[in-house]
Amino acid sequence: MSQKEHIRDYKAPAGGWGALRSVTKSWLGSENAFRNLRTMLKTNQNGGFDCPGCAWGESPENGMVKFCENGAKAVNWEATSRRVDPAFFAQYRVSDLAKQTDYWLEDQGRLTHPMRYDAETDHYVETSWNEAFALVAKHLNELDSPDQAEFYTSGRASNEAAFLYQLFVRAFGTNNFPDCSNMCHEASAIAMSDTIGVGKGTVVFQDLEEADAIFVIGQNPGTNHPRMLEPLRAAVKRGAQVICLNPLKERGLERFQNPQLPVEMLRNGSEPTNTAFFRPALGGDMAVFRGMAKFLLSWDREAQEKGEPAVLDHAFIQEHTCGLDDYLNAVDATCWDHIVEQSGLTLEEIEVLARMYRRADKVVMCWAMGLTQHRHSVPIIQEVVNLQLLRGNVGKPGAGLSPVRGHSNVQGDRTMGINEHPPEALLNALEKRFQFEVPRMHGHNTVQAIQAMEEKRAKVFLGLGGNFAQATPDTPRTHRALRSCELTVHIATKLNRSHLVTGRNALILPCLGRTEIDMQAEGPQGVTVEDTFSMVHISYGQLKPRSPMLRSETSIVAGIAKATLGNHPIDWDWAVADYSRIRDLIADTIPGFENFNEKLKHPGGFHLGNTAANRVWNTPSGKAQFRATTLPTQLVNESVLEKGDKPDLILQTMRAHDQYNTTVYGLDDRYRGVFGLRDVVFANEADIRRLGFEPGEKVDLVSLWDDGRERRVSDFVLVAYDIPPGQAAAYYPETNPLVPLESYGDRTFTPTSKFIAVKLEKAKPSAVIPTQQ
Ligand SMILES: Nc1nc2c(c(=O)[nH]1)N[C@H]1C(S)=C(S)[C@@H](COP(=O)(O)OP(=O)(O)OC[C@H]3O[C@@H](n4cnc5c(=O)[nH]c(N)nc54)[C@H](O)[C@@H]3O)O[C@H]1N2
Ligand SMILES: Nc1nc2c(c(=O)[nH]1)N[C@H]1C(S)=C(S)[C@@H](COP(=O)(O)OP(=O)(O)OC[C@H]3O[C@@H](n4cnc5c(=O)[nH]c(N)nc54)[C@H](O)[C@@H]3O)O[C@H]1N2
Ligand SMILES: [Mo]
Fold first, then answer.
1. Chain segment 145-163, per-residue pLDDT in tens
2. Are 561 and 572 in contact (CB under 8 A)?
């Protein structure tokens, strides 16, 4: 390791001076410090723009500063004045660029011109917008079937762009909508639709302020939703319980110093963000919740015998739910040994958890990728729902279910119909409003899209944002699949690896970011987004676009649509001239958006409503449904067991503090004490020694999967870390080559990014790196 690369204990709280230093560094390093500071102050304000970072919602109180450390990084990242222009592409061949790191690629600046890949010279060359659109149209129209094209969406696209995109793709004739949601909260949507009849969270910000207990499960808000730390800290302060379930003692879940409170900063105080911390096994959460339910049930029976007040909310259960008996039978049939063994907790810990849960009248359960990226994610999340139903914790103030979303508009994109298995009602509404026969067959999700490209059943890939080549599993294989396409197209703000993994033909279509002024024929336009609490609001870019050639995502989608379909089913130019026209089309077809333009005039936007929050259950029975699933016999996949090797460790892949998904802003992970490097694997010191290694040594990680393929990443530094025995953790996307494409969640097709069986091998040549304390 060089001088700058080091591992050390980081003792400071989350936020605090470390965050201020980091914001200042990112801001001063952005070449446009004063302009960007002015821009940052417009973040999440009425009349300003929505933070392009995460999907966390706003507290209704209007403060002066509404961005966090990582939001500031996101804004500065977008607002850079460095440019990746035609001269840049003339300088580098694509194969040269491919040798650079992901960090270097995005650090080169903003894409400025539409570029076409020239295979003969291996360079991207400038093209015109019209030529680019014509090339896409030609390839799409030459396909034997519309199902031979894949239309990917990342979760930053605005509602307006997403609505036009799905309209175009369905008018073209397919439901092939792989999206980042497939790798993210798919399990939450499925689990909740099945049980409470709506695939979105039931809570709003105020519920966090009223809850007696908040569970934060499989989530690292200190890094990924920093604005959540303030309500957690406030909850602890007012005497509510904040109970964390996470194998890693993430710093943001321990202590927080709010950098926006001068008094607190000056006295250098910090406050706790939890009242209790439990560290389950990876994938062990279903066992934890099953155990809690078992305790509640036994206490309820005991209370009934003694004539004491009940523990379960029988009135709620009676009036609002069905399936209780089957569920209780499943709980009775699950034995304690199995629960304890799978959960990674002790029986006493589960009892403490159950007591805390019982004591609270109003409980909010929050979760993120720690629950959704497992094979059994749907049953895991349904066990959370079951538990909440037992005590009537859905559909009352201060209580509910909160899958905390990732990308800033990932929830809105789904609402707009970016969905490979669209609800019938949406298809019917589109058909009625636009008078064309919509495709009814389900399309491809992300895993199926890769498989289809691999087998040459799909030949055109179009990405509305994102970094498909890096965010997806089984990297070398996925890259081969993309390369086998006739055409790959990326609508993007910054250069990333997906642009270098080209099909025979390839295009980069540079777009405006959310911070930039979006000027169309009828004047400057705003775009709308939906946050994790289902609040919809409008966002206006503030900055002059980085290049006059840039177009908005909405206008690029319309350009492709017009070139491909002509003025069918709408006049695309007309729609793009004034986005309120697109919003009128949304109002006509998507429930909850009636009088859309009118409703947006309300400062802070409007709430879309949530049936389950009103105790209206859109399920076949008309009731909230308990789900009785047996606890999986074991968590390691049969394919791993068949390989005959016992895994050394189970690896989860996660985000460092200086990254936004595949976008790496810097090489530090401050809260975990890692500086200047990313190829690290965190493991328990006893495990490291048991496996015959030393902390600081470099290893290869090899994943186990019985399909004859080798999956390996090399030269990862072993970091001795406070992590439960048997577990390891490393950063994504570097570890995506280890995730087998076929290792995905039951029903969800979400890659099992939080549960990968691995072996450790000595790296060649091996080098021992001292750990600095
Ligand atoms: N700055 C920043 N913000 C972001 C992102 C970003 O990359 N950077 N990404 C955005 C996106 S798209 C998303 S989806 C969210 C992601 O937000 P998170 O879900 O917080 O992201 P991860 O880094 O994947 O962290 C997963 C957490 O779950 C824990 N965990 C892993 N496996 C298990 C398990 O089996 N059980 C339990 N109980 N815990 C487990 C890990 O220790 C870790 O703390 O953040 C969004 N916001
Ligand atoms: N191993 C592992 N894999 C994972 C995960 C994990 O935890 N572990 N997490 C999964 C999750 S939760 C998610 S959501 C996916 C993320 O998958 P994606 O959404 O595909 O990936 P991102 O890294 O967010 O995309 C970054 C790129 O988006 C482009 N971009 C940024 N802003 C804009 C914009 O405003 N418009 C347009 N058009 N483009 C823009 C930039 O070019 C940037 O390079 O990854 C998944 N993959
Ligand atoms: Mo995500």
1. 999 999 999 999 999 999 9
2. yes
